[in-house]
């Protein structure tokens, strides 16, 4: 029975393949396109400007030389009777006071370096204390990822603080503190 069904299917496949014709459709002849010749190029010569000779200019006045100051004669008569000292007199310049560095420019809303550093340290301490109260082993995998992120933010904030990037350090510390508070409430 199975062989009969298989044989019928095979014969049907061969018969249906024989009905298909592999003939190409004949192309209809189309008239060729006639391309018109390009238009003639007419290039007009550009008119040459009339070259006129420049008018001669009269003699220019001589350039004024900068006035040189006349040397002032020595008011003291030369002292022929005194011998010149053998050792030259060395004039010592007055000691130059060390130049104080210019004050650091800040916008009115920002605090000075010491105050900003103290604020960032306060936020970092608060975030560390909050993370210290959390039992890492009881956290889920997602919460452990958040915990690790908060630790990394604290580390990055401390690095930015060492580089005196107070705004970046403050932002990183605030993010770490926010994550720590969210982990503590769960």
In short:
This protein has helices at 2-19, 113-132, 141-162, 166-185. By secondary structure, it is an all-alpha fold. It has a domain at 113-185.
Explain what this protein looks like in three dimensions.
The chain is mostly helical and 186 residues long. The chain has a domain at 113-185. The protein has 4 helices and no strands. α2 runs antiparallel to α3, α2 runs parallel beside α4 and α3 (141-162) packs antiparallel against α4 (166-185).
Task: Lay out the secondary structure.
Elements: H1 2-19, H2 113-132, H3 141-162, H4 166-185
Helix pairs in contact: 2-3, 2-4, 3-4
Key terms for this structure?
4 helices, 43% helix, 0% strand
Report the structural category.
mainly alpha
User: Main sheet?
Assistant: none
From the alpha-carbon coordinates, what is the Rg to the nearest angstrom? Answer: 49 Å
Order of helices and strands: HHHH
Strand content: under 5%
The unreliable regions are none
Helix coverage percent: 40-55%
Rounded mean pLDDT score = 79
Overall strand count: 0
Helical run tally:
4
Shape: flat
